[in-house]
Amino acid sequence: MTTAPAADQRRLLDVQALDTRLDQLAHKRRTLPELARLAELDAQLSDLHTALVTSQTAVGDLRREVAKAEADVEQVRSRAARDQARLDSGQGSAKDLQAIQHELESLGRRQSDLEEVELEVMERLEAHESALAEVSRAHAALADRRSEVVVERDAAFAQIDAEIGTLGAERAAAAQGLDAGLVSLYERLRGQLGGSGAAALRGRRCEGCRLELNPLDLDVIKKASEDTVVRCEECGRILVRLPEA
């Protein structure tokens, strides 16, 4: 059976209390509400980014389409201007001038059709530019909110980390000089039992599992020397006997 000075066993409860608090702080750090909020904001930003890229692509495509439509209209206007200049000059045979007149009429119809196409594309572009502006504003607002939450998270991290640092120093001081075998057993049990390797025995109850020991086990513990390291038969933790027990 393992032995360790009774005083070391009682000090182990201080170490356990500090370890429990450190574990709670580590859990708090992992489960900050700001982290969940950031995950939610990141998901929303991802969706908005996809919408933003889609909208930017549509606007880019439509701007190129508008440019092409404008070029097509300008090309017909230039051709019509040249034909009109030739017609106005009166140069050429009657047949040639008649052909130019017919071409001007055809170009007029062509220009009208192209201008309708241009107008339709410009209207679609305007609608998409409006949608793009709205998505951009929403994305920027969400990005600003995320930045605010990052600041809140970092402030919470700093506060928790400062407390962890203070408690860590206290824990190191509390464990300083403890029996090596006792500490080794305690650390092993902590890993196996969810962070709690030692508990006080109060009356008949183990403070670790909150169960009462049966009379036979309690009698064995009472008869053991105070330096004997006893274990709870129910949960396996180190049972630290206090003077009043």
Kindly describe this structure:
InterPro entries: CT398_CC_hairpin, Oxidative_Scav/Glycosyltrans, Zf-RING_7. Residues 15-193 form the CT398-like coiled coil hairpin domain. Residues 59-117 form a coiled coil. The chain is mainly alpha-helical and 245 residues long. It has 2 domains: 6-26 and 179-241, no CATH class; 32-175, Helix Hairpins. It is built from 5 helices and 4 strands, in the order ααααββαββ. It has helices at residues 6-30, 33-89, 94-175, 180-192, 215-223; strands at 198-202, 205-206, 230-231, 238-241. It has a 4-stranded mixed beta sheet. A hairpin with a 2-residue loop joins strand 1 (198-202) and strand 2. Helix 2 runs antiparallel to helix 3. The longest helix has 82 residues, at 94-175. The chain is rod-shaped. The protein starts with 5 loop residues before the first helix and ends with a strand. The model has no long low-confidence stretch (mean pLDDT 93).
